[in-house]
Amino acid sequence: MPSSPFYPIGTPGQPWGAAELAQWRARQVRQRSYVDDVLAAIEQLRESFDVASYGEVVYGDEHFPLMAIRSRHWQPGLPGVLVTGGVHGYETSGVHGALRVLQDLAPAYAGRVNLLVAPCVSPWAYERVQRWNFDAIDPNRSFRATSPAQESAALMALVAPLRGQLVAHIDLHETTDSDESEFRPAVAARDGKAFEPSTIPDGFYLVDDSANPQPAFQQAIIEAVEKVTHIAPADVHGGIIGSPLVAHGVIHYAMKDLGLCAGISGAKYTSTTEVYPDSARATPEQCIAAQVAAVGAVLEFVSEIGR
Question: Where is the active site (predicted)?
Fold first, then answer.
């Protein structure tokens, strides 16, 4: 039995069934518009990029086109970079950071890098400021064969033909106070487990792949982001979110084993960014700028090694 306050849906120690899922869905309120915030911004990019839908998420009578934007003159000999945002819909700076990369950074790398951007992988969750999808599934634990998440399966299908062409993949995320107040208690309740409190790091950090660590790549990103916002320090245990620091602002996860988005591309260089938007030391604009700086470092790193 959990010792901390229990989530308001479900029975302690018992996984959710259909009734609990229905209760959870009833709590999800549309707070913003994917059409207005994301699709409208993408429309403005059509003159400079190839824009296409790579699928559709359908939940009841709601239909969300999934959009990808890529370099207009894709050249097979150039290094490819994949940028993904909004795998967790509530992580706002990832979505808007990916869009701003296309608006502000991408033109400078035309002819140097092939760029593919999926700026909002989970549009239903974006509108509800939610981590999970409609089925209470975390897309960023669902990038695996026979994925139960529509969002994850569609992105994997988009990327599969490009395996071997992609040199780098950066997946843009946030770690928020609501991770601890809402989302971690929710997953414990959903799975019938006890909620174990943790801490939220104050600052930016990166997740590298434990099966394919690339310290120089991560360091290049950290150095760029540090000019924009602060890097998360180690906690009292010498780590971040339960993982030991392997370098300044860097931890390791087993990306493929955990079904994480950053493990889908087969790229040599992969990273997941984590911005902290609830910090007293950061503004929403800084959070977006940090994501843009991270992608800029990736583009520069890849264009240099491709020369």
Answer: 274
